[in-house]
Amino acid sequence: MAELFTEKELAYLAGQRLGRLATVDGEGRPHVVPVGYRLSEAGTIEIAGPNMAASKKFKNIAAEPRVAFVVDDLTPPDEPVYRPDVGRGVEVLGRASLCGGEGGRPTISISPEVVYSWHVDEARRPISVLADREGRL
């Protein structure tokens, strides 16, 4: 699964700590929450936290495992490829499974199926109208 990510996307995800997890409840209502995460060596996204098994996100995944996960921020002032202070991020669409993580703690594990990114890796450069005079996006 790590092969779905480019090296720059992996480095970006490893350097961040907060993402947003989108799930859907049994009636089709979306639910989005900020979560801490870690990227495993296998390329899965691991989410754990207090009272995880009682959380809405955990219950939603038990009913519907398809999820979206987004990590985003703004490009730094010294960004060499893209314009400073424009949005950048990685979106992962995949399936989540519920499992016991470290010490048996309930954990959500997302197996990526599709990865999108913007302003993270020029190899996946999206069409942008934000180019500055130097041609940076």
Give structural attributes.
elongated, mainly beta, 7 strands, Pnp Oxidase, Chain A, 137 residues
What would you note in describing this structure?
With 137 residues, this protein is mainly beta. Helix content is 12%, strand content 41%. Strands 2-1-5-6-7-4-3 form a seven-stranded antiparallel sheet.
Summarize the structure.
The protein has 137 residues and is mostly beta strands. The chain contains 2 helices and 7 strands, in the order H-E-E-E-E-H-E-E-E. Strand 3 (38-39) and strand 4 (45-48) form a beta hairpin.
Please give the structural blueprint.
Layout: H1 7-14, E1 18-24, E2 30-36, E3 38-39, E4 45-48, H2 56-63, E5 66-74, E6 87-100, E7 106-118
Antiparallel strand pairs: 1-2, 1-5, 3-4, 4-7, 5-6, 6-7
